[in-house]
Amino acid sequence: MAPTTETQDPLSIAYDEGLQPVYPSQAAAQAPEVVTAYNQGISEAPQYVDDQGERELYNQDLHFNFPHAGDPPEKLKPSFWRRKTIIIVLIVVAAIIAIIIGITVSQTRKNSTKKIIGHLPLSFNSSTPGNDGATPPPNYFSTYGAYNGTSLSTTDPLTGDEQGQLGNLLLFFQHHTGDLRYSELVDSMWQGGGSDFSLGVKNAANATPIAGVSYQTIDGSAKAVATWTVFYLDDSSTIQNVVRDNITNQWTSGSIGNFNFKAPKSSHVALTVCFSADWYGLTVGESGGLRLYAAGEDGLIHEYSWYLGNETSWQEEFAFQNSNGFAGAACWPAGGITNLYLQDSTGGLKTWWKDFNTNATNTTQHPLSVWQRGPDAATEDRSNSSIAFSNNAYFQDDDNQVFGIAAVNGSENFEWGASFSVDGVQAMLGTSIACQTFFPSETGPSGLYIYFQTNGTNVVEYVRAQEGGPWSMNYIPVD
Hints:
Number of helices: 1
Structural class: mainly beta
Shape: globular
Low-confidence stretches: 1-20, 25-77, 103-128
Largest sheet: 5 strands, antiparallel
Strand order of the largest sheet: 1-22-23-24-25
Mean pLDDT: 78
Distance between the termini: 6 Å
């Protein structure tokens, strides 16, 4: 049963059918209650069933008044038969209760390990950069709702049937069965998350990273074609993708798996993707494509490219030296300049930038078509933290809170702004983070929409006006 949706605080920002998303190209720079997945703040140990066998209890002080042997039957007191009847009934009832208890205990013993979703041991969820490739313990896996430690990814809603038309905001996640699914925001309400919202992926790795992107193109008849592409790792740690458009509305396998790009076997692997209609294609300023940033087998983050018009071809472009492929990553194109947010081997939030506009002026301070290292953020994000970006960069700190930090300007003028907590709530240790930023179509404050897990089965959404104010919380349907 899907978790219920809580009502938002009326003082905080609410969904508005006229919300307009911030697009990179427009930017300036829930059933058991024992589940608290790999959260180091867990305060109550899982409850195990006692292994001792049942014992037959009796009371030595219990006596019955039986008739004297010399009494003739017709002189037996009527109370004797009443007592005998009561005793027989009590024995039968006790026997039935014993049977029920026996079945219940047996069933509980069989299912007890399924109901315990413990936190990850440090050897699996490392607090230092890198990962030892350990295998999750059996109690790591959730048995309802979302996958314990699912990756999260949103796609821009600019995917309607007409050019520039708003569609639905999609949030992709991994179900506890291992199935990749999505929920969508339709008419200001979240729906989906069930098997009807499956991507049809049968071979996704446990705790696979997920990176989704949506974009519009115009076909030969000037009709807008909306496309969604979702990247993930299969059970051999090979990067794969599935694609859907608004013409067929069917998920089909993409082409990247043919190139055998491998990622580490880990519960945390960097994977993020961005689309640019003008700057990622073969013709500068006129054609589009995708840039995928993913951890390689060497533990570094690698860049891969794909062009519109050459949809079956992928190639590797760059490897970010000293980067931590076991943490998160987030890309953000703004005009011809793309920023990549990541961690390096020392931990902490870092940024790189590149100007894809080869027609711009090439200077020493602003070289073209070359990745440049930007300033480090003065943040205390935990090592291997997930990273998300939409106007602000989001990360998890050492106290398991989710924080955002503003990004100001771009390229060589890039600066980090003020940081803020997402309602001061403790998220699940090692949670994935996703985000969106919206502006209303008319006057009003912009809205921050942040997604993460607070336990091993849910996905929550926190919403707040960008300028500040109270946060409201919703549960995303995931079952």
